[in-house]
């Protein structure tokens, strides 16, 4: 599906419709949840398309010199409406605390507020999503057509807000797309990436890594700068809307053991590790509260988990960073 033309200038990507007609983006390009792992990189990547970048969050910090900072609580409808006003494209990249109760309480409000604000402003919406809503019976590789039947409570929340989004799009009330990543790793995700918390940080400090499920199963991870660059490109490609896109993710993922051994070698550390099942994760949760939230997600780690970005790579000349290169770039953060 090669329906767009992309011009490359240095490391920047400029999207243009295949028919050659330019779609002016005169308003702000606004990032809701700008302080997260993806939002930071996305602010940088959007400079390839505009200088009118608005960063929205509880305590937003500038990434580019010209950024407009807009403090807002996205669970507040009025604040969200004000944050979105005047925007041509809105990127919902919010990363709520990894806690089911918070997700159940806040995600429906954040999505509803964002949808209504975009409708009023006439903004296109780009929703940065994960794969929690997919069925645990993984058809490999996992594509955009994978069945949506989440086995976890968090996945059920994600499916509910996704259904709400597509319901609005289906009525013709909103233009939107979904940019979906696998578990991510890379710069600015040191405290939010499972791989960072359980493998990179422990091994970098001479401690044992922790791997969920089975270490002999391959597991895909999306590199954060790749995810942000692709999301910016999608948001500035009118033909991409109305669809779900898996963001560029390296093929042939490493197994848990390969991740541990390779990361350990990078830090010249011993590849010591512990394998945690559900009971073990609850135990680890006594020392790291966030680990209490992982047992229901262990199904993604006890089987092959291979994420496909073939659709995106067929439409855009942007290729994912290899795991070797991503690891090399990220290791200095720990």
Descriptive account of the structure:
- With 334 residues, the chain is of the alpha/beta class.
- The chain folds into 2 domains: 4-184 and 221-249 and 305-321, 3-Layer(aba) Sandwich (Rossmann fold), CATH 3.40.50; 194-216 and 254-300, no CATH class.
- The chain has helices spanning 37-45, 77-84, 100-121, 153-170, 194-204, 224-235, 256-266, 278-284, 310-315, 323-330; strands at 4-9, 12-17, 28-32, 53-57, 68-71, 87-92, 124-129, 176-180, 184-185, 209-212, 222-223, 244-246, 273-276.
- Strands 5-4-3-6-7-8-12 form a 7-stranded parallel β-sheet, sandwiched between helices. Strands 1-2 form a two-stranded antiparallel sheet.
- Helix 1 (37-45) links the parallel strand 3 (28-32) and strand 4.
- Helix 1 (37-45) packs across helix 6 (224-235) and helix 5 (194-204) crosses helix 7 (256-266).
- 45% of the residues are buried.
- Mean pLDDT is 90; it is low at 1-14 and 16-24.
Keywords:
Rossmann fold, 334 residues, 10 helices, two-stranded antiparallel ribbon, seven-stranded parallel beta sheet
């Amino acid at each position: 599906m090669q329906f767009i033309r992309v011009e490359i200038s240095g490391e920047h990507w400029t999207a243009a419709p295949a028919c050659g007609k330019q779609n002016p983006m005169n308003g702000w390009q606004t990032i809701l949840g700008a302080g997260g792992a993806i939002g930071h990189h996305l602010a940088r990547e959007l400079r390839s398309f505009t200088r009118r970048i608005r960063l929205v969050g509880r305590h937003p910090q500038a990434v580019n010199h010209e950024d407009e900072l807009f403090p807002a609580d996205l669970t507040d409808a009025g604040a969200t409406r004000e944050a979105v006003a005047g925007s041509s494209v809105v990127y919902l990249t919010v990363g709520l605390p990894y806690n089911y109760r918070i997700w159940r309480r806040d995600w429906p409000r954040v999505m509803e507020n964002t949808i209504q604000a975009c409708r009023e402003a006439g903004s296109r919406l780009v929703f940065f999503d994960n794969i929690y809503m997919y069925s645990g019976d993984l058809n490999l590789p996992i594509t955009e057509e994978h069945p949506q039947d989440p086995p976890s409570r968090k996945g059920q929340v994600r499916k509910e807000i996704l259904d709400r989004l597509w319901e609005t799009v289906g009525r013709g009330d909103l233009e939107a797309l979904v940019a979906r990543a696998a578990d991510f790793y890379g710069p600015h995700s040191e405290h939010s990436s499972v791989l960072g918390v359980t493998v990179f940080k422990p091994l970098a400090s001479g401690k044992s890594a922790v791997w969920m499920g089975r270490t002999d199963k391959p597991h895909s991870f999306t590199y954060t700068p790749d995810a942000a660059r692709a999301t910016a490109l999608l948001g500035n490609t009118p033909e991409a809307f109305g669809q779900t896109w898996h963001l560029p993710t390296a093929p042939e993922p490493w197994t848990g053991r390969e991740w541990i051994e390779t990361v350990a070698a990078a830090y010249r550390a011993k590849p010591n590790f512990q394998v945690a099942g559900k009971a073990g994760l609850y135990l680890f949760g006594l020392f790291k509260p966030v680990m209490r939230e992982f047992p229901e997600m262990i199904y993604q780690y006890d089987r092959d988990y291979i994420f496909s970005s073939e659709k995106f790579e067929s439409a855009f000349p942007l290729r994912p960073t290899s795991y070797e290169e991503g690891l090399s770039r990220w290791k200095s953060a720990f």
